[in-house]
Amino acid sequence: MSYRLGVDVGGTFTDVLLVDEESGSTWRAKTASTPSDQSVGVLNGIDKVCAEAGVDRAVIRHVLHGTTVATNAILERKGATVGLVTTEGFRQVLQIARSFVPGGLAGWIIWPKPEPLAELENTVEVPGRIASDGTIVTELDEQAARHALRKLKGVESLAISLINAFANDAHERRLAELAKEEMPGVEISLSSVVLPEMREYERALTTVANGYVQPQVARYVANLSDKINTDLSILRSDGGLAKAAAAAAAPVTMLLSGPAGGVTGAVWVAEQSGHRELLTFDMGGTSTDVALVREGQARIGRETKVGDLTVRASAVDVRTVGAGGGSIAHVPELTRALRVGPQSAGAEPGPAAYGKGGDAPTVTDANVVLGYLPAALAGGEITLDREAARAAVQTVADAMGLPSAEAAAAGIVDIVNENMLGGLRLVSVQQGYDPRDFALVAFGGAGPLHANALGRLTGAWPVIVPPSPGVLCALGDATTSARDEAARTVLRRLGDLTPDEFTAIFEELAGAASSRVAAAQVTYSADVRFVGQGNELPVTVELGEGPAGLAARFDAEHERLFSFTLDVDHELVNARATVTGERPRVTPIHLEKGDGDPSSARTGETRVYVDGDFVDAALYDRLRLRAGDVVPGPAIVTEMDSTTLILPGHAAVTDPSGSLLIRPAESLEG
Amino acid sequence: MARIVESSTEPLAATDVDPVTLDLVENGLRNARYEMDEVLFRTALSPGIREQHDEFPLIADPAGRMVVGQFGLSIPDFLAGFAGDIREGDVLLTSDPYACGAAISHANDWLVVLPIYVEGRVVGWASMFGHMSDVGGKTPSSMPTDARTIYEEGVVIPPFKLYDGGRLNEDALRIILNQVRVPDWNRADLNGLVAACRTAARRVQEMCARFGVATYLSALDALLQRNYDAMKTLLHVVFEEGRTLSFTDYICDDGVGFGPYELKLSLTRTGDRVHLDFSGSSPQAIGPVNYYLNENLARMFFGIYMITVADPQILWNDGFYPLVDVTIPDGSYWKPRHPAALNARNHGIGRVFDLFGGLLGQTNPALLNAAGFSSSPHFMYSGNYSSGDRKGEWFQLYSIGFGGIPGRPLGDGPDGHSLWPSFVNIPCEFLESYYPLRIEKWETVADTGGAGLHRGGNGVDVAYRFLEPGTIAIHDDRWLTYPWGVNGGEPGARGRKWIDRAGGEREVLPSKCHDVPVRPGDVLHFVTWGGGGWGDPLARDPELVAKEVRRGLVTREGARRYGVVVDEAGAVDAAATAEIRGEARPERPVFNMGPPLDEILARCEEETGLPAPRRPVWT
């Protein structure tokens, strides 16, 4: 008997999914997260799920883990004290950044500039210079370097990022040797290892971010490995798995471990009902993450955004919108417009309806006023105070001169849906994809409540609401494959490359990546641009097509995105090889077949406010729905960790895999 | 005057738009506008747009009023200057400021305008202009610092149909591109401008399909009205009836030996309306620094300053324009007569930030920032490779400098940043990979930010070592007059430029020059200016001053301007600090502009190494 176990640590709950690798059977458990040491919650969860399955912990062969340790270190600014070594003349590389000020005209008046992750007093520069083609202009001055390193006192982690190190890493490697002598025991991150790509600020920032989270991640991973005493893998931001040791060495690749788990879980669930072209939509308390999936593969972006930090590391292309259940609605006095978010009531004090002292009108309060939320949430842990929600939303109605709290609540829900639509458009329309060609997968605590409305706005049908949306991330952890990638900046015109040179570049990278992961599949991609452009487009590479084939693929992508191409040469900027291991087998849920009639799952009736009026809606218990049962809207389907709203004119079909598939009613007829 | 051809001309009844639909349209317009930016940034080839993001999008209602955008550029003025029919599928192009009422302000800016049709009816306009890095003329990048007429500034395109009913006018485009140094850049950038406008048109058409044309158009009216109402309230709150506020700032020189040019702006509210009056400003410049200002653009700037703090999420539009009267005297710096040269107007546009801050801040403390990095100084380097694989090949660099954001009510001004939205610097590694130069230093200069409770941001020193012979050009300002401080804050340091020649001698460069020859081994130092300080420097936390000394952003000597003594280890000497801070404090003015102008001019050569310019006079 052998088992694998997926575990996702969220802000409130730790979700665990145990999978019997032979039968595919699964067991789920949920325990409270333990923020001060996440491994405690993980262990509790493992014990709980093992008890449920009646097995000993020792039978677990693999633990697959999505963690927010690195993310939280950045968001809470609790990472290591990082020392930074730069080339002489570039000590202020993080201070000057790209000289960019966000916002519109006059935005500079109200922009608070964030402090760099490595403080300027912990930044030193060393003499020695490499040119952009890798030739050495001035040798590294080792004596000056030692002297500079000695000035760095009290740093827990060292980042070395020299000018043009993407072209030649000799000076960085020598500096690392010196640093090991001068400051033994300090973790070292080299820019030529973390991100061997052109652009000094982005490379330095990414290297520093790596160093910033490294000690914490290394400690956590080592601690957890010891305790569980089995093979541990961590989910990377790009949705692949990395061995614990590899993850600890390159923690900057796992900053979006959590959201990546959600997307990979959504992909797996949606595949069980036959859908591989997806928009995913994960709505939580303060924000919503959206992503686009083609042919069962999440689109991978080259940037990772955490809070106000953007680093260059491959990640599932998740866009975050500041709109969630806790987003606060407000009406500026001057314009009397209705704004929702980005301020959030968070978990404390939370929406007015939670009765924990919050009185600001939130999206959750609007949902309560409209009758979309039942009396209790999270399996009874939170009871809802309808009167408090109503009073809060009434303040919006008063400020806008609307006739009722319901009208204001409907406005709040419409605006927040519109904000999320903006996020979905970013990953679809703006990338040249028509959302009507995709299905929409909704999860997260609030996702299933807004999913039907977003289906209507985007035309993405069906809307898929997975079973137990809460453990979707753990499911993603348990169902993904090992992965690693190798990349470097090349800077060659495609017209100058022979097919042999072209192939050699990529095969060398594949060799490097394969040394860390047993390869079942190798894929190649490149960042390409027209000579003279400032931004590249990521393009898939087929080695057999050679450089001319890559140019043609780039042209097609440019045409699709921007509706024109140019008659100039192409430049290969970055080359990348991604190695993926075998995908594990997990058997999906298989619901008992019903007769299409959901009435045995019906638990009662309620009134919901839709399109300007209250209408009767039926309540259903999700656990009692059988395969093939069709739930006509308006209806509310409840389960322990989420609530699904089905609007009038729509119906949800219960898929054998447990998902609800919502479509317009007329499309189900005939 | 253009004639607009529509197959459907029946008037549409105005409909009531519920407030939520209104906010949905607002949101959709905002998304469309950012999408325009994105399309252009990603596709442009010329460094001006690609790296500097020097471009401005706009979506207008059928009457040409801007409903979303960054600049209230004037479609009505543009249409007034175009003789001919306008039909579905047409795309118009111009680069002539004098033919479109200064909708654009120099010939480097190419302006694209297209009508948006739904069911045979014009439902709006999409428009965008971008700075072409080269439009021909006598010097690379087309910005001769000694130009006296627009005829010296490259190709000047009158308004014409680039696309006629969807068909490209290839002959015209060929004639235009034949005049420029790197036609691939212009072609790509122009494609990007057109693609961005077409994207906006598609989004507007989608909104019309979703909400209905009548609802969409009524929503635009309501959005314009929303700005009108908000501004009306705000004007009454901020400005006293009948009281005239004035503020004067300067452009240091005009490239041909005259300066400083006085830029004066006055404001008076009477009833619901305010009057912005540029009278009292200097006459038009002899050299190319004139900033031909469209009246609507002045309104736009004014409005943005007013509202940024009140409702940052508002969709900015033209709705409040009827509340603002603007007077710009003919023949002045702001409205020169054809064919005055215009290329170097970037200082004038930038200085508008300082001008409005100094004016509006007098009655609105949240807007009273010190003077900042109010320009976008240019650096150009071009030539032909003299050896190697690329021997004979042309290279041409155009880049932007960054400097000190001023001390603000919010806090310190960032070091080495941009006042302009979306501008970014070009990475050193990118420059070194594509141009024959090496960057030896890129850091901010300690103490160049003005002292204050909130420190002004430091200016930047970028040192370029040239590896090939060629020529360079510089467009900068604030080398003579000071970036002023406010509320007791001190002025920031002025900008400086010099070349350390390979032979060892040092050559001071004027802030505006072109065709300066450089040889391999020469090193140019391009030092920008710092932001002014905000508030009394003696009130700044001594520990923070000491920390900035340890960070190298302030020197130990500079710390004394804050009344703080820092020891060699970088710690505060509390006793010595208390002693200095205990001394009688001088009276500090609201605006500290440094010494009087006469004194600045008298000491010009001694302090800057450059001859003093001559004051311009009205004739």
UniProtKB/TrEMBL annotation, chain A:
Annotated Hydantoinase/oxoprolinase N-terminal domain residues = 4-182
Extract the SUPFAM superfamilies matched here: Actin-like ATPase domain
- Per UniProt, what is one GO molecular function of this protein? 5-oxoprolinase (ATP-hydrolyzing) activity
Family matches, as Pfam families? Hydant_A_C (PF19278), Hydant_A_N (PF05378), Hydantoinase_A (PF01968)
Q: Name one GO cellular component term.
A: cytosol
Q: Which InterPro entries match?
A: ACX-like_C, ATPase_NBD, Hydant_A_N, Hydantoinase_A, Oxoprolinase-like
* Domain Acetophenone carboxylase-like C-terminal residue range list: 575-652
Biological process terms from the Gene Ontology for this record are: glutathione metabolic process
Q: Where is the Hydantoinase A/oxoprolinase domain?
A: 203-481
What protein name does the entry list? N-methylhydantoinase A
Species this protein is from: Paractinoplanes atraurantiacus
**Lineage of origin:** Bacteria, Bacillati, Actinomycetota, Actinomycetes, Micromonosporales
From TrEMBL, chain B:
Which biological processes are named by the entry's GO terms?
A: glutathione metabolic process
GO MF annotation, one: 5-oxoprolinase (ATP-hydrolyzing) activity
Every copy of the Hydantoinase B/oxoprolinase domain together lies at 18-537
GO-annotated cellular components? cytosol
Q: Name one Pfam family in it.
A: Hydantoinase_B
Domain of life from the UniProt record? Bacteria
Q: What is this protein called?
A: N-methylhydantoinase B
**Protein's organism:** Paractinoplanes atraurantiacus
